[in-house]
Write a structure and sequence with these properties.
Blueprint: E1 3-6, H1 12-22, E2 26-32, E3 35-42, E4 45-51, H2 58-64, H3 70-81, H4 89-97, H5 101-117, E5 125-131, H6 155-168, H7 176-190, H8 194-205, H9 211-225, E6 228-235, E7 238-245, H10 254-259, E8 262-264, H11 270-277, E9 281-283, H12 289-298, E10 305-312, E11 315-323, H13 334-355
Antiparallel strand pairs: 1-5, 2-3, 2-5, 3-4, 6-7, 6-11, 7-8, 9-10, 10-11
Helix pairs in contact: 1-6, 3-4, 6-7, 8-13, 9-13
Length: 359
């Protein structure tokens, strides 16, 4: 699973929910006007985070929380310097100085929350999630917290709690029972069938405000059933990239690259077939010029792809391309997704008419 893009297109709350649903391990790098940071995931749970916004070390946090004394920290750091290979400070405090692991976890969890919540207000910037198991700690200078939570934090809980913190302010005590109720509701929604998920997405679609909102809903739905996806606007005989999910590029935001994509709709291509028949297809890509260009962009040829039309006023206004991605994620609930696309196409056309401009 690869995930990279711009925060103006996919915010931190949506990213956390996507990574929670995927239950993957890896690192999420964030850059925005507030600063930069890295969040570490293990099986979809947040276990560590660092940021230049809050550069406090574990020792400083533990002293502020009255968990340890200055003398203990000094002795533990001295012991750490003479230990090869590197031992995390938290491990030394627990094993050699009998400091409560639970107390350290509580302090670190609070700092992780503070770091993640600081990115909730970012509306410009970039993000990149790299799949893979976490590397060793290496150095406390590179990992100021020098500690990894044994029991990770739920991204879903972070989203719910973060929104409450923003609404009420960081100083006000958060109602934990209210958070638990909202989490229970979210878990119930996640276990619903494809039809129930569709109903929920259609309900959200009724309250769109901008075309970008519609695209985000489509990509969010796609993220639950596909490995990656691209939305193309149909402009005459050409397809123009609008947005994406699950694509990665090492140098630029994938969204910026997608928006520069432009393919001619070749006769006999899958693109032409979907536009002419106005129905979705699941098939391998053909060998037309447009499809060969897409294969090159994707760095390979997927075994099966999904192409779905957004139809409004009897014409196809956009296409949704999706596949299993590098991780070979199985595409599910395609029929329900087709229904959602038909409604999204109508909503998108209404938005274009109201805005009087292209996406």
């Amino acid at each position: 699973m690869a995930l990279e893009g711009c925060l103006e297109d996919l915010g931190i709350r949506d990213i956390l929910q996507i990574l929670s649903l995927s239950k993957k391990s890896g690192t999420l790098s964030l850059k925005c006007q507030n600063g930069s940071g890295v969040v570490y995931f293990s099986d979809g749970q947040v276990v560590r985070a660092t940021s230049n916004i809050f550069p406090e070390t574990l020792g400083q946090l533990l002293r502020q929380g009255n968990v340890v004394t200055e003398d203990v920290i000094v002795q533990a750091l001295k012991s750490q310097k003479s230990t090869i290979p590197h031992r995390p400070l938290g491990q030394i405090l627990v094993e050699d100085y009998m400091v409560s692991s639970a107390a350290i976890e509580k302090i670190v969890a609070a700092q992780i929350e503070k770091i993640i919540f600081s990115f909730f207000s970012c509306n410009k910037g970039s993000f990149s999630f790299q799949l893979g198991e976490m590397e060793g700690f290496g150095s406390a200078q590179l990992n100021p917290l020098d500690f990894m939570l044994e029991q990770g934090l739920s991204p879903q809980r972070l989203v719910v709690k973060g929104l409450k913190v923003i609404e009420s302010g960081p100083e006000k005590k958060i109602d934990q029972e209210l958070i638990e109720r909202e989490l229970a509701e979210r878990e119930t929604q996640q276990t619903q069938s494809g039809l129930e998920r569709l109903r929920g997405m259609l309900a959200e679609l009724e309250h769109y405000e901008l075309g970008g909102g519609i695209i985000l809903l489509i990509l969010r739905y796609a993220s639950e059933i596909m490995g990656r996806a691209i939305i193309f606007d149909v402009r005459g005989s050409h397809l123009v990239g609008v947005g994406q999910f699950g694509l990665a590029d090492s140098s630029l935001c994938a969204d910026s690259i997608v928006r520069k994509m432009q393919f001619h709709i070749d006769s006999g291509s899958l693109f032409a077939q979907v536009i002419q028949e106005k129905v979705a297809v699941r098939s391998a890509l053909k060998n037309t010029a447009a499809e060969e260009s897409l294969k090159e962009f994707l760095n390979g040829e997927p075994e099966e792809v999904f192409l779905g039309p957004l139809v409004s006023d009897g014409k196809v206004v956009a296409l949704l391309y999706g596949d299993s991605g590098p991780g070979n994620q199985v595409m599910q609930d395609a029929n329900a997704f087709e229904v959602f696309l038909s409604q999204a196409g109508l909503a998108m056309e209404q938005t274009l008419r109201g805005a009087g401009k292209d996406l």
